[in-house]
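your task:
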Amino acid sequence: MRITDLRLALVFVPFPGPVYPAWRAGGVQEGTQATVLEIDTDAGITGVGTTFAHGRREMIETVEHMVRPYLIGKDPFAVERHIHLLRTAGMFGARPWLVEVALWDIIGKAAGLPLYRLWGGYTDRVKAYASTAEVRPPARRADDVRRYRDDGFRAVKLRLHHDDPQDDLRVVEAAVAAGGGEVEIMADANQGTILPYHTMGPRWSYETARFMARELGQMGVVWLEEPLPRFDFDSIARLSAEVDIPIAGGEANAGLHEFRWLIERRCYDILQPDATLSEGLFQLRKIAGLAEAHGLRFVPHTWADGIGMAANLQLAASVPNCGYLEFPYDPPHFTMGAFQALLVEPIRVEADGCVRVPEAPGLGVELNREAVERFRVG
């Protein structure tokens, strides 16, 4: 089998209304933006991969000029031979890990197996947590948690971005009470990377991070995510050693070497790389294995689109040290329909809070090409 073509599209799927993401103070997100890649082969099998776009063409230009000329005529099964190219392209352009995702989609389809079964089939169900986007007051977040529970979720992640950390604690307290012991609560400080907009947003000191970690631990919060800057390895490791609550992070760290540093220095209790951001799917399995050997958990980050979530779901179900799937969801505007518009059949949360892994070959899902054309912007 040989690769015959790589086809790319830039899409924008609008939300029903504006979303105000916590990690970008004063900013607004009006929809899901993604780069969609299809890789064709001479066997008639096409693989699909997607990643973040943010309205830019960097990914298309990276793939078109640095990746496509090399891959045409190559064996799609030889993923490990292609990894060096993708890493090099990511140094000089956008991180092209959607290419590796699409290659594995081809391999799974050729084998007639979903990827999680091809890689060992650890489980066919993964617990989903509703991953919120906005900062909301305590009473509204309490209502949200009750709604998410009715929608099937048994875990919810909140954003901590008030100027006064005490206000964040009030939100968490209300959410924990609303869950009534039936809904697990996670917390994300989004301090790994501060995205400026009109303001920089709240920035935590080490002392604030330690205080919040101890308070959240006493409330029974499952983990505290990215409480400190991404590359302050010394402080992250110190915090993890000083508090009882698990510290999670790594969503935008890149390369096996960075995760090796994070693991060997015991920075995080839970590693959260993303197959569309950090490395490719199979490369993240290496990270998951190294984490397992060090007694650490592995819970992939997901915030691209439905195809990206499907990729991370196949990965999560293939390893023994992953207990959750991040499921972006924050109605009324950040809806499942908008986030998963590029899927013919959406991924659903069942009554027990779990997502069943799709059993179709490859990523297990089908790209909605009609939606791609309808929402195409480049």
